[in-house]
Every structure is written in C-alpha cells, then in structure tokens.
Design brief:
Layout: E1 4-11, E2 20-27, E3 32-36, H1 43-51, E4 58-63, E5 66-67, H2 73-76, E6 78-81, H3 93-103, H4 110-123, H5 139-152, E7 157-161, H6 169-186, E8 189-194, H7 197-203, E9 206-211, E10 214-219, H8 221-226, H9 231-236, E11 243-250, E12 253-255, E13 260-262, H10 265-271, E14 276-281, H11 294-299, E15 309-312, E16 316-322, H12 327-336, E17 348-354
Parallel strand pairs: 3-8, 3-9, 6-7, 7-8
Antiparallel strand pairs: 1-2, 1-4, 4-5, 9-10, 11-12, 11-14, 12-13, 15-16, 16-17
Helix pairs in contact: 3-4, 3-5, 4-5, 5-6
Length: 365
C-alpha cells in the first residue's frame, strides 16, 4: 500500500489548453479517492499519468515519497482495473488471476504462483470458482477476478477508470457495493475515475472535482454537498441539481422569482454590499406546505407556485415550477454565472417533495 502525492502536475497535449492544469493532491495510504467531473475535464489523463501510461509535462508525482515521473509503469507497482475487466475468456479464473505473474517469465515458480492466486481467491471469496471460465461467472464475480489480478501482483494501489460505465443500472449498483466492500476489506489505496454522481458520492473517502483540468475542490462527499466552494461544484454535485435563483436585495428583504425572504443579519453579512446574488436552493429543501404541521410551516417561508410537471419516483416526487427572470437581471446573472458557462442558468425550480405530497401537474401548490 502507498501514499500518492501529486504536486503541481500539468499535462499539455501539443500547444493546446492544458488537459490537466497545476493539480496538487495528497492521497493517504489506504485512502479511497474519487476523481469526478464532466467529460473532457482531464480525469483519465490524470489517472494515466499516475500509472505511467502518459508523460507528465510539468510537476511531480511521488509514491511513498519516491518521485516516479521517469519510472516505467511496471516499476510503479500500481494496478489499473479497466472497463469490462479485460478478462481472457478462454482462460480459467485461476489463470486469469495468475496472468500478471506469468507475464514476468520465470520470476515466479509455479508454487509461488499457486500460493498467491489461492490467497487472492480466498480474500475475494473466489475459491470455489477457480476452474470456471469468465463466461460462467456473475458480473460481481468477474469484477472480483479483475481485482484478483491486481492483488496477486501485490500492487501498492488500485486505479479504476470508469469500470462500471458499460453496465446496466442494476448491475452497476451491485458492482459499486462490491468494489466498496473489497476496498474496505483490503484497505488498498485507491483512485477511481467516474462521471457518475452516485459512485462519486458513495464510494470515496474523499472526492476531487475537476473542471477543464483544474481541481475545484477536494473534500468528503458530505462536505462537498453541504459546503461547495463555488457554483460549479454546487451545480455539479447533487441530483436533481441545485436550483439557482436570482436574488435582489430590496430594503429589508431579498426578492426571489416566486417569493421573498427577510434579510437576516447572517444573510446580510454574506451578501455584503451586493445588490444581485445567486441563491442556491437544494430541491429537497422545498416541501409541500399542505403536508406540514403549523409549527413546521411557521419556521419556513411559504409561497404559492404553479406546478408545471410532476415526476413520481415512488419514495418522493419531483415538482417543476417555471419562473420568469427579468431581462436585466438575467444579463447580470449570466456574468455572475460564468463559472457554469451559463449552462446551468435556470428557468425553473425543482422541488423534491416527500411521498406524502399530493402535488399534481397543473396544481398551484
Ligand atoms: P471522459 O470522461 O470523456 O473520459 P476525461 O475527463 O477523462 O473525459 P481526458 O480523457 O483526460 O478527460 O481528456 C482531457 C482533455 O485532453 C480533453 O480535452 C481531451 O480531448 C484531451 N486529450 C486526451 N487525450 C489526448 C491525446 N492523446 N491527444 C490530444 N488530446 C488529448
């Protein structure tokens, strides 16, 4: 196992915009870190630089204190687990796990190969399946065989590049749990690349959010959700995404598209002398007032809204409420919103309401 440190790491392909731009990140021994961000943000490039499949244009990568910039991939002793697990269909589970050892011809006597494969199989609960071919395994077992390969080499860290992206939703969920369970059991340092929200939020000890090659925030999933450092992280983490509403300071109140809220001292302190702000509101922080008792209702701000569409998901439902933003406000907002490239400019509010809500399409709720 190993600690991995990235220090001011840069990757430039040709003379274009850097794919990875001055990224510094310290990963502790045994830690599970997720790299997440939209397509093209540089996640895979970063992972490939750590494993040694891609040169580094600038900066330093070290493993347990040793700088590995110029080390060949095999000397870094890291194991990459790919999409589809890259298992050989004609080989048994035993031979699939033994494969990396056999590659280093003559280095491992047969007895040592057997010992290592059996130990890996025991850790992964695959002992019963060593003679089978991959086609006769469940998806979860295949995932474990792929991890077995990483274990036999006694790799210092596991690196996953979107390993579940080709699976259907149900299998994906199962595999996710499997990977989490195995990583906890083995305690191996892990870096995992994904653009999937759920994987990012559930798997890692910490999540690193990237945008256009630049690291935006590195934090625990909870801290990321509750204290995003900027609009990009706020809008990227969470599903359905955070609502962004224009807020206009007007005397003692902050005017919002559908309602207004009193300007408390705390709000004033945060707003300073700005006149226009973007207010972030998580969908689950809105509730159907009809389902609340008087006391709870009195604690919040109640407003009427025309519900446009309702999506029922069983345990909860999403209610969509369109709103209008004055043109001059929208223009100023777009400036404030540069962080999101304007993509998340909202014209509607999404409320995640409890299952007890009776909101219907066309309702005023
Ligand atoms: P995705 O989720 O779509 O896989 P990503 O976040 O993993 O994206 P990368 O594959 O790391 O992103 O790519 C980052 C940027 O570098 C992109 O703009 C991409 O086009 C560019 N890029 C990646 N590989 C090369 C290459 N071999 N040559 C030139 N540009 C590249």
């Amino acid at each position: 196992m190993a600690a991995i440190t990235l220090s001011h790491v840069v990757k430039k392909y040709g003379d274009g915009f850097p794919a990875v731009n001055d990224v510094s990140l310290e990963i502790d021994d045994g830690e599970f870190v997720i790299l997440v961000g939209p397509s093209g943000c540089g996640k895979s490039t970063l992972l490939r630089m750590v494993v040694g499949l891609e040169d580094i244009s600038d900066g330093e990568i070290s493993i347990d204190g040793d700088v590995v910039n110029d080390k060949a991939p095999r000397d870094r002793r890291l194991a990459m687990v790919f999409q589809n697990y890259a298992l050989y269909p004609h080989l048994s589970v035993f031979e699939n796990i033994a494969f990396p050892l056999r590659l280093e011809k003559g280095k491992y006597p047969e007895e040592e190969v057997r010992r290592r494969v059996e130990k890996a199989a025991e850790t992964l609960e695959l002992q019963e399946h060593l003679d089978r071919k991959p086609a006769n395994l469940s998806g979860g077992q295949r995932q474990r065989v792929a991890m077995g390969r990483a274990i036999v080499r006694e790799a210092r860290a596991f690196l996953f590049d979107e390993p579940l992206s080709n699976l259907d939703a149900k299998l994906r969920g199962q595999m996710r749990t499997e990977i989490a369970r195995m990583q906890r059991r083995l305690g191996t340092t892990t870096i995992y690349v994904t653009h999937d929200q759920t994987e990012a939020m559930t798997l890692g000890d910490r999540v690193a959010v990237l945008k256009k090659g630049v690291l935006q925030q590195v934090a625990s999933p909870r801290a990321l959700y509750e204290q995003p450092v900027n609009l990009f992280v706020a809008g990227f983490i969470g599903s359905p995404p955070m609502n962004f509403l224009p807020g206009e300071v007007d005397g003692d109140v902050l005017r919002l598209p559908l309602t207004q809220v009193p300007l408390t001292d705390e709000l004033r302190a945060r707003i300073g002398d700005r006149k226009l702000v973007i207010v972030g509101l998580r969908p689950e922080h809105l509730e159907d007032a009809d389902t609340l008792d008087d006391e709870t209702r009195a604690k919040g701000v109640t407003f009427e809204a025309d519900v446009d569409v309702v999506e029922w998901l069983g345990a909860e439902l999403y209610a969509y409420v369109p709103f209008e933003t004055r043109e001059d406000v929208a223009a100023t907002l777009e400036e404030l919103d540069r962080d999101l490239d304007g993509e998340n400019m909202r014209t509607q509010l999404v409320a995640a309401l409890g299952a007890e809500s009776h909101a219907r399409d066309g309702d005023t709720a």
